[in-house]
Design brief:
CATH architecture of the largest domain in chain A: Orthogonal Bundle
CATH superfamily of the largest domain in chain A: Alpha-helical ferredoxin
Shape of chain B: flat
Bound molecules: iron/sulfur cluster, FE2/S2 (inorganic) cluster
CATH topology of the largest domain in chain B: 3 helical TM bundles of succinate and fumarate reductases
Radius of gyration of chain B: 22 Å
Number of domains of chain B: 2
Oligomer: heterodimer
CATH architecture of the largest domain in chain B: Up-down Bundle
CATH topology of the largest domain in chain A: Fumarate Reductase Iron-sulfur Protein, Chain B, domain 2
Number of strands of chain B: 2
CATH class of the largest domain in chain A: Mainly Alpha
Helix content of chain A: 25-40%
Largest interface: A-B, 33 and 24 residues
Number of strands of chain A: 7
Strand order of the largest sheet of chain A: 2-1-5-3-4
């Protein structure tokens, strides 16, 4: 029988009894194809039922299970014990977010940021029902598709020191979402969204650290979205100098 | 009554030492200090040039000092580091589409290096001719 085990350190915080977070160690059986999320489930089922963490799909699509694994933001269901064995693994709640309990963070601010960029198709003035459905070529779709793959996991916010230093910064995923609608041929809301991205807390809050794109599990590349939006914002500024209205 | 009490962690001042990625980013940002230093040295040279030949030669002599040679080497390393890391990031800010396909990142990066080489050769020609 396989008796190999691996130690997992978890940063715990129980708001009703703890002043501040503390680390608790667990030893779990090591099996090559066990994910970090499954290890957490093992701990909850067999070692300590009070431990809290989020998950749903177990297949990197719901975006619920983000956490810091050895200080790097990752999805618990997309990281495996074999990537760390025989070393100890440290698990902490996603950085830059307030801790609700154990590995669960408060994501309200992140959700508000996503909502704030008008993430829906804004029809042009002349659009009317009688003109029928929108048509889009595969090429037109290709221009925004990558930015539409976001699963709202928040890993990029945990990777962003600019957000960590000042959470007024609208942040990577929300700006990628803004780019996703801006680049959609069916959308006519660019002018409305320009006000959002021109602000200091908009694209100009980004100093191009680029770690958001490295940690993104869906290859959304929010850093690229932001740099492309900076180009748009600069163009808007230059045009505004000559054609103020 | 709610038992909620969200715990806020402060970003530590040494956050940029915790991950290699952040440290490399800070080095890239920090390279501006050395590049500013270098442009100040050049400005100082132009000022000396305006003061006549002997003053300019004195400036040139001063630069032979080991201190300045080491400083120049350090500046060169930072300038190269900045250029290389910056070129590597360039494709993120450039989305060029030709005939329905996006131009490959490697092409954009190669174009930057080509431009870098051409400008360097031109500068060398201007200085040496
Ligand atoms: S951009 Fe990537 S890292 Fe950020 S929330 Fe979306 S999927 Fe997650
Ligand atoms: S459980 Fe859904 S993304 Fe990991």
């Amino acid at each position: 029988m396989n008796k190999k085990t691996i130690v997992i350190d978890i940063l715990r915080y129980r708001p009703e009894m703890d002043e501040k977070p503390f680390t608790q160690s667990f030893e779990v059986p090591y099996i090559e194809d066990t994910s970090i999320l499954e290890a957490l489930q093992y701990i909850k089922d067999h070692l300590d039922s009070t431990i809290s963490f989020r998950w749903s799909c177990r297949m990197a699509i719901c975006g619920s299970c983000g956490l810091m694994i050895d200080n790097i933001p990752k999805l618990g269901c997309k990281a495996f014990l074999r990537d760390y064995y025989p070393n100890k693994i440290s698990l902490e709640p996603l950085a830059n977010f307030p801790i609700e309990r154990d590995l669960v963070v408060v994501m309200d601010d992140f959700m508000q940021k996503l909502e704030s960029v008008k993430p829906y198709l804004i029809p042009g003035d002349n659009a009317c029902m009688s003109s029928g459905e929108y048509q889009q070529t595969p090429l037109q779709m290709e221009k925004y598709k990558q930015f539409s793959m976001c699963i709202n996991c928040g890993l990029c916010y945990a990777a962003c020191p600019q957000y960590g230093l000042d959470n007024n910064f609208i942040g990577p995923a929300a700006l990628a979402l803004l780019a996703r609608y801006d680049r959609d041929s069916r959308d006519a809301g660019s002018a409305q969204r320009m006000k959002i991205l021109n602000q200091e807390e908009g694209v100009w809050g980004c100093t191009f650290v680029g770690y958001c794109s490295t940690v993104c599990p869906k290859k959304v590349d929010p850093a690229a979205a932001i740099q492309l939006l900076k180009v748009e914002s600069s163009k808007d500024y230059l045009i505004g100098l000559f054609k103020p209205d | 009554m709610s038992k909620r009490k969200p715990y806020i962690r402060k970003l530590e001042t040494n956050w940029w030492l915790k991950t290699g990625f952040y440290t490399r980013y800070m080095l890239r940002e920090g390279s501006c200090i050395f590049i500013t230093l270098y442009s100040l040295i050049l400005t100082w040279g132009i000022f000396n040039l305006s003061q006549g030949e002997s003053s300019f030669n004195m400036w040139l002599d001063t630069l032979q000092n080991p201190f300045f040679i080491i400083l120049h080497l350090i500046v060169l390393i930072f300038a190269l580091y900045h250029s290389i890391t910056w070129f590597a990031l360039a494709p993120k800010a450039i989305a060029l589409w030709v005939k329905g396909t996006r131009i490959e990142d490697s092409v954009i990066i190669a174009t930057h290096y080509a431009a870098f080489a051409i400008v360097t050769v031109l500068c060398l020609l201007i200085i040496t001719l």
